[in-house]
Amino acid sequence: EKGGFEHFMIKEIFEQPKAIRDTLSCRVADDGKSVKFDELNWSPEDVNSIGKIMITACGTAYHAGLLAKYFIEKLARIPVEVDIASEYRYRDPLTDSKTLCIIISQSGETIDTLAALKEAKRRGARSLAITNVVGSSISREADQVVYTWAGPEIAVASTKAYTTQLVALLLLALYMGRLNGQLSAEKETEILQDLQKVPEQCQYIFDHADDVKQLAEKFKNKEDVFFIGRSMDYGLAMEGALKLKEISYIHAEAYAGGELKHGTLALIVDGVPVIALATQRDVEEKMISNIKEVKARNAQVVGVVQDDDTEVAKTVDYIIKIPKSDNFVMPVMTVIPLQLLAYYAAVVRGNDVDKPRNLAKSVTVE
Ligand code: F6R
């Protein structure tokens, strides 16, 4: 059932091109140039009436929500708040009938997320669930549902569910931006065409998986790893750190590149690995300054960059290249080497990769 793979997690990492293709294909118009959502069928008025969007989720799904804030605010210019479900419930949130609540959950059964959805509905919000499980509790509770077509995810650490959540959320941002007139048809087509290339481009990352494995071997006895990034790469840094902690049990932390000098630099000492995500071209120069700050303290830096980068490569010890794409599309591919790093680190440390200690696949207790 693992199809020749040693673990479900690595099988699911390699299934991402198919999962992404399946999530995309039913939402692209026949000419390949615009987004359609038959299951939503919104009018411009449906989008114009949204005062703000509340995204609520847990764990990896929450990290997808962090990126969705960039997608939606930049492409559709609608304000977005992102909340951890267990926090949302108890903070007397500003949610009303002008709020669209987007709930993200792979399993559709996470109890805190379900409760947050109920709370948002109680306050009069419209609700939209992004979930991977047809007929799940969350899919039944929400007003509307957008399914990620990732297929069953067995490994406890979420991989293909996350990338398909990013795809669904980016499509949704494009859809809303077109409906409310904030996004031009040309820009929509440009991003969509880059998104459609992703399943094929993933092969390049898989072909270089051994480089990531070597890094995992090099870092296997480290006690702390730092992930840094700016803009969308900051959200990805959080996901990379979670994945590493979850299955390799190496302590990891994510920092916004600009935040290091506000305390964290104290922890960057000789030999500490820093995974520097620098795929976002508009903040590349700033990331290079942040990389220099950690290099000056003798960190071992892995730069994760677009494949035509020349500048970051000059400042780091190791480089991981990601096929070039639109800024909004980059995260869908950039997370894959981070998943691989966590996976190989867990394997070399002899951990139970698919069932990490103390964790369950779907968390139905509060
Ligand atoms: C991490 C992971 C968890 C889940 C979280 C939410 O790899 O899988 O953080 O993302 O428990 O689960 P769902 O998406 O099923 O609500």
Question: Would you kindly provide a written description of the structure presented here, covering whatever features stand out?
Answer:
This protein is of the alpha/beta class and 366 residues long. 44% of the residues lie in helices and 16% in strands. It has 13 helices and ten strands. The protein has helices at residues 8-14, 16-25, 44-48, 59-76, 85-88, 111-122, 137-141, 160-179, 185-207, 209-218, 232-248, 284-295, 330-348; strands at 52-57, 80-84, 99-105, 126-131, 144-147, 224-229, 251-256, 273-278, 300-306, 318-322. The strands form two sheets. It has a five-stranded parallel beta sheet, with helices on both faces. It has a five-stranded parallel beta sheet with strand order 7-6-8-9-10, sandwiched between helices. Helix 4 packs parallel to helix 8. It starts with 7 loop residues before the first helix and ends in an 18-residue tail after the last helix. The relative contact order is 0.14. The model has no long low-confidence stretch (mean pLDDT 96). Fructose -6-phosphate (F6R) is lined by residues 58-61, 105-107, 110, 113, 157-158, 246, 362-363. This is Glutamine--fructose-6-phosphate aminotransferase [isomerizing]. It catalyses: D-fructose 6-phosphate + L-glutamine = D-glucosamine 6-phosphate + L-glutamate.
Question: What labels would you give this structure?
Answer:
366 residues, alpha/beta, five-stranded parallel β-sheet, 13 helices, EC 2.6.1.16, 44% helix, Glutamine--fructose-6-phosphate aminotransferase [isomerizing], transferase, glutamine-fructose-6-phosphate transaminase (isomerizing) activity
